[in-house]
Write a structure and sequence with these properties.
Largest sheet: 4 strands, parallel
Number of strands: 4
Oligomer: single chain
Strand content: 5-15%
Structural class: alpha/beta
Strand order of the largest sheet: 2-1-3-4
Number of helices: 3
Radius of gyration: 13 Å
C-alpha cells in the first residue's frame, strides 16, 4: 500500500476520496501529454499515479500515441469523451478546481 503524505491525504479528503477505495490498474498505462506541457510540474498527475502505485518515473511517457505502444493511454490536454483504451483529461499542469480534480479521479477509477 502506498504511504500518503499529509498533503496527499488532504487533497484526497478535499475530493471526497477514501484511500481504502483505491483500485489499482492491472494493465500497463502510457501517459500522452502535449509537447509544451511539463509533466514533471503536474503534481496532480504524480499524486494520482502514486495512489495507483504506478510512479510517474515507471510510466512510459510520449507526446503521441504513435510513439508508444500500450494497452491504455491517459491523454492529457485533450478533454473529450474517452474509450476503453483512452482516458482524455484536461492539462494537469494548470490549476484545477476541486470539482475538476474529483471528476478526473472518478473518470480514472471508472476507466481502469
Amino acid at each position: 500500500m502506498t504511504t500518503l503524505t499529509p498533503r496527499q491525504q488532504a487533497a484526497l479528503e478535499q475530493m471526497g476520496i477514501r484511500p481504502v477505495a483505491l483500485r489499482r490498474p492491472k494493465v500497463p498505462l502510457a501517459l500522452i501529454h502535449p509537447a509544451d506541457m511539463a509533466l514533471e510540474q503536474a503534481q496532480l498527475a504524480r499524486d494520482l499515479l502514486l495512489l495507483l502505485e504506478q510512479p510517474l518515473e515507471q510510466c512510459p511517457v510520449a507526446h503521441s500515441e504513435n510513439e508508444m505502444p500500450a494497452h491504455r493511454y491517459w491523454v492529457m490536454g485533450t478533454p473529450r469523451p474517452g474509450s476503453a483504451t483512452h482516458l482524455f483529461t484536461p492539462r494537469l499542469d494548470k490549476p484545477l478546481s476541486v470539482d475538476d480534480k474529483r471528476r478526473i479521479w472518478r473518470s480514472l477509477q471508472r476507466w481502469l
